[in-house]
Structure formats: C-alpha cells, structure tokens
Amino acid sequence: MLPVDAFDVSPEAVTRDLIERVAGRLPGCCGATSETWHRGRLSGRVSSHPDLAELMAVEPSLPDTPMRAAARTLRAVRLDDTLTDMHWRPFSARALDLGVRSLVCVAQAVGDERAMSCTLYSLRPGGLPDHAASHAADLLVEWTTALAQASAFADVQAEARQLSEAIAARELVEQAKGMLMHALGCDADSAYRELAAAAERGQLKLTDVARRMVEHRSAPPGQDSRLRTLRGARIPNQNTG
C-alpha cells in the first residue's frame, strides 16, 4: 500500500493535472493556464507548458491583459489574433513571440476580493471554437471542485500523519519502559515515573528520553552501552551535548 504522502494533493499539482487533461480535450487548444487574483492583482498561476508559464510571468508588468480584464469584469474575453490585436498590444506582442495566436479567458469571483480565471490558448488565429468559453467555464467548475476535494484529502493526510507519529511515540515509550523494568526490576508504573523524572531533569520531552534510551542500547560496539537513564543518572541536554 502506498503511504498517504505518496499522493501530491497540493493546489499546484491538482490544477496542473486538471488543465493538462482538459486542454487536450478541446480541438485547436495548445495549452491552458489557471490564475488566481486578489484585489485585481495576479496572486497565483499554474501553466500546462513552460512557454505559457513564461507568458504569465510577465503579466504583472504589463499595462493590461485579457486575463486581468476577465477577472475584473467577470466576463469572457476572447482574443482572436495576437498579430492584429491593438487593445492589449504589449501582451499580444509577448504572446506572439511565444507562438500564441489566440486565446479565450473566463473568470469567476471567489468572495469579495478574489477571483479565479482559466485561459485556453491556440497556435492559430481564431483557432479556438465558439464553445471554448463554455469549455473554460466548465474547467473553472472542475477546478474549484478538485481543489475542495484536495483540501479534504490533505486534512486526511494530516490526521494520518499525526496518528502515525503518536503510535511511533507510544511504541518508543513502551520500549524504553521495558528496558527500565528489566534493568531496575520494577513494574510498568515505576518505569514510567523514572522516564518522566529523567525527562524533567534533562528538560526534554518524554519521547526524546525514550528515543535516546532505545538508540543508546543499539549503539555500535566500543561505545558506552549502559542505560544512562537509571535512577539518579542525569540525561544531558541535547543542546549542550
């Protein structure tokens, strides 16, 4: 079974996987980007291809862009030919340098100050079909759903991680208690009190004391292998060596 952490559910990974799959389903579409906006400024972006990432990297430095206009008006923006476009000339010139000839962008509000947008690109003028805006809008819906699912799965990951850490810590403490019970000839409660007292003396966590005991027992030959946590022994603070 794969560990929970084997699944990348970061927003970037989820978004990239989605836009790569969706872009491939639309005739004439060569790639896609997704953008997040805060108070009209680009706050995040994910691209299906490096050239599109380069295009979006210069977006904040341009006077205006189709994506920014879509996020501002929440209306679909269509640019049919970057070669002849005069409205977003600085953006179109940069897009043309990268081989982009046309695009469609849609956006939706997320709260009062944020928006999300999706942009589909083509290498040909007017290369995107009339229903491209609807396709991009569907992508936005899929995107928000996927992010919500990813967030829920991330919560499960965190809980699983915490549970695993708690089990590992408990096993360490139980192992250290067993070592003390054997060395001191005491019961489990007395062994636990010895661990707690050692932790207090050394200003350490109980699990840190237990870990040091377990590791010390398995020290390589030639090293001092005595249990330094026996009654009256002080465990050195890790910061002081």
What does this structure look like?
The structure is a single chain. With 241 residues, the chain is of the alpha+beta class. The chain has 2 domains: 4-154, Beta-Lactamase; 186-240, no CATH class. 49% of the residues lie in helices and 15% in strands. It is built from 7 helices and 5 strands, in the order H-E-E-H-H-E-H-E-E-H-H-H. It has helices at residues 11-23, 50-57, 66-73, 89-97, 132-184, 188-202, 206-217, and strands spanning 31-38, 41-47, 77-79, 102-110, 114-122. The protein has a 5-stranded antiparallel β-sheet, sandwiched between helices. A hairpin with a 3-residue loop joins strand 4 (102-110) and strand 5. Helix 1 packs antiparallel against helix 5, helix 5 packs across helix 6 (188-202) and helix 5 crosses helix 7. It is rod-shaped, with a radius of gyration of 29 Å. The model is unreliable at 1-9 and 218-241 (pLDDT under 50).
Low-confidence stretches: 1-9, 218-241
CATH topology of the largest domain: Beta-Lactamase
The CATH C-level name of the largest domain is: Alpha Beta
The secondary-structure class comes to: alpha+beta
What is the mean pLDDT? Answer: 77
Q: What is the strand tally?
A: 5
How large is the radius of gyration? 29 Å
What percentage of amino acids are in beta strands?
5-15%
Fraction of helical residues: 40-55%
**Can you write the helix and strand succession as a string?**
HEEHHEHEEHHH
Domains, number: 2
Most strands sheet = 5 strands, antiparallel
Please tell me the CATH architecture of the largest domain by its name.
2-Layer Sandwich
Indicate the overall shape.
Answer: rod-shaped
Put simply, the count of helices is: 7
CATH superfamily of the largest domain: Transcription factor LuxR-like, autoinducer-binding domain
Strand order of the largest sheet: 2-1-5-4-3
Distance between the termini: 40 Å
